[in-house]
Input
Amino acid sequence: MSDILIGGVPFLALSHRDGRFIRLAGLFAFARREPSGIYHVLHLEMTEVIARDAGPAHGRWGWALSVGMNTLLVHGFGQPAILTQDAPLDWETVTWHPEARVNFLDDEDVSEADLSPLLAGDRARKGR
Output
């Protein structure tokens, strides 16, 4: 099971500059890993190609660096969430920056409260 969950969706942590290697559609989050090991989400976005959009040309890159971004969290579409039967659909192991933004498919920003139906909708449940 992944240790990093956002809205019940598993994420993999990479160095913030390694998004250029991920040539998949999926979700990415600019994040700051705290000394405690908790990830603090600064920006979450859905994209057709992570390598194209999760880098220095992104509009939130400079701001994210200024507030301590040191990690890129990625989820490639099709990656199953391996969770126990009783795990809540909106399970999160991250915290959120007060100015974090969420962008899905060129929609206007979505509030954190709106994440669970978008992210957890059709994920596989394993480990029952």
About this structure: The first helix runs from residue 50 to 53.
